[in-house]
Design a protein that fits this description.
InterPro entries: DUF6879
Strand content: 15-25%
Helix content: 40-55%
Radius of gyration: 16 Å
Protein name: DUF6879 domain-containing protein
Domain DUF6879: 8-172
Pfam families: DUF6879
Strand order of the largest sheet: 6-5-4-1-2-3-7
Mean pLDDT: 95
Number of strands: 7
Low-confidence stretches: none
Number of helices: 8
Largest sheet: 7 strands, mixed
Length: 179
């Protein structure tokens, strides 16, 4: 395993990738979400699932997908969803409208098919960026790997997760009463 590096050290990958940026999200919630203004708006009952072109993440997704690149993500969701997962289901619609393909799979199904319990990004099926989280859900940094074994395993996880995952708009209909 490589050394732990700051997430800022790999931020360029979100612009530099050539074809695909794919993420597996496994956490029950994220400290970065809970500390943001969007979380407070959601807690107050505001609709946070809109595309916001001025928001940097949405602008980046739109720019990359307009250039023909793909942003994709699979989120593991508990049944019933945790508060953090309900937030992600609500806010994810803006990402989808920006051009990201977000899908969801129940955690029990993910365990059955052998998906890992850690988060990572996979860029162009050649660079794996694995997250390290503190007990409070805060991102401590990431590990970057390009060795064949790690990359092939990440590609296998991606393919299995994608096969069993449901697009977020359809998934929300299944859990509408909790979103």
């Amino acid at each position: 395993m490589t050394d732990l590096v700051s997430f800022d050290d790999i931020a360029h990958l979100f612009e530099d990738f050539e074809h695909t940026a794919w993420r597996l999200e496994t956490q029950h919630g994220y400290a970065s979400d809970r500390s943001g203004a969007k979380w407070q708006r959601w807690k107050a009952g505001e609709n946070i699932g809109r595309y916001e072109p001025e928001q940097p993440w949405h602008a980046g997704i739109r720019a990359q997908t307009d250039a023909g690149k793909r942003f994709e993500r699979v989120r593991l969701v508990d049944d019933p969803p945790t508060e953090g997962q309900r937030f992600l289901l609500a806010s994810g619609l803006g990402n989808v409208e920006a051009g990201e393909d977000i899908r969801n799979v129940y955690r029990t199904d993910a365990q059955r098919i052998g998906l890992p319990d850690y988060d990572f990004w996979l860029f162009d099926s050649r660079i794996v960026v694995r997250f390290a989280f503190g007990d409070d859900g805060a991102t401590l940094g990431v590990y970057v790997a390009e060795d064949a074994e790690t990359v092939v395993r990440a590609c296998q996880v991606r393919d299995a997760a994608w096969h069993f995952a449901t697009p977020t708009t359809e998934f929300q209909q299944q859990v509408r009463s909790t979103v």
